[in-house]
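Following up on my earlier thread - several people asked me to post the actual chain instead of describing it. Fair enough. Here it is, all 135 residues.
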Amino acid sequence: MKSLVVACALFVAAAGAVAQDKVVYHISDTAAQALGGLRNVGNHLDTDPSAQITVVTHAQGVDFLMLDAKDRNGNPFEVTVQQLAKRGVKFEVCEITLKNRNLKREQFIEEAKFTPSGVVRLTKLQKEGYAYIRP
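Reply from S.P.:
Thanks for posting it. Predicted structure:
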């Protein structure tokens, strides 16, 4: 009986570790979404430090990940992005947006990674069980 209780406790602990929250934040407009979205991501991690968070950007939403980008208060986005990346947050930029806007990868901060299509990436992450949040 004692071994059954121990086995059940181990199973519950393992299930809790596997049940880590996975979330994708969708940003398509830097001016309207980036500052609040980054705050949401930080607050999310403050409450649930084990959450797996990916921020997918496209259209005008990629702008906050560009070199020297600043928020409406004149603060560089890069500092906040770096802090969140150190906490495990992934930042992805749509390559279709790069092509459509004549942008180059070299114009983006180091933390920005690239995905062939932001919309397709959002779909795939949701199929993988990621919750969708649009700040």
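The longest strand covers residues 52-60. That should answer part of your original question.
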